[in-house]
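[audit] Reproducing an earlier prediction to check determinism. Same input, same settings, fresh worker. If the tokens differ from the archived copy the diff job will pick it up downstream; this log only records the rerun itself.
[audit] input (316 residues):
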Amino acid sequence: MNMIVSKKEKRNRGGFTLLELLVVVAILAAVAGTASIALKDTDARASAAAHVTMMDELNKGIRTYRVLQRNELPSRFDSLLNTTAGTGADGDDPGCLGFDIGDGCEIGTLTADVEAIMVDGGISELMYVDTTALPEGANAAAGLDCTAANIKALIASRANAVVAGNIFLPEAANGCGVAVALDGSDGSGARALFWTGGTTRLTGQPDPADLDSDGNWAGTTSLYNADGNYAYLLTGIGPSCTLFDANTLGGMTTVPVYRHVKPDEYNRFIAVWNVGTYLSGAIVAGDQCELVAIVDGALDTKEEELGEWDGTRNTI
């Protein structure tokens, strides 16, 4: 028997009404919005967590290397400078590669005594960008110009294999680097980069100049180079460093990369070394060169990087 279907029943068997579709779309939009908020900066925070791990690994790696090498530190760290003296006073100085390293640093000179304790500790050479000579061969043909004014253009160019992370490697390895021996023989010393952020930012402890005669924190904040305060040398931990010589006992196999910088900025981690104390603005060398901390390529400390990871510090 044939059944007669009314128009009303046909309508009931149809698709969604416009109102129903609008409701569904609104619900999906709300869910998507909630998910977006929950996942906001997830990648960046994951990178921050990875950076903290890398800081710890580098800290342990350098200390382990020193033990296995019988109290000898790795050598050929990146100086974070080029061979041409600049005109400014901080990390934005043209003599500081022409690209930013971050606030909290100042260009200075290694005294012969400081160089001596570095060499005694195993750091016999630092890598500098050589701006006085242009590389030859295939790289020169590709426009490899290492002069300070052209560093950013050199890194940004796709006509060569130079990137910010290998700028301190020698020309044969697609860089502009040259190793400079720290022999202090001429008494003039090499140019170097020093931390100006103070001890408290690095370790949570007061600067010596901030302590009273009883050793209590006086509650003041002294200048980084006040008499008695520690002198902290900064060196980049790049691929030229002997820490990454896999043929050496204690050598690491991977060179960590710091990713919260622009493509033309230094993208390695940085070691902070205690090389002595200040007296009348000059550095008096300590007994030996001591690793204090590892900071990132923006000169943020581990605690500051942890703040980026847990969302309490939004500098990503």
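[audit] rerun output stored. Observation attached for the diff report: Residues 86-95 have pLDDT under 50 and may be disordered.
[audit] end
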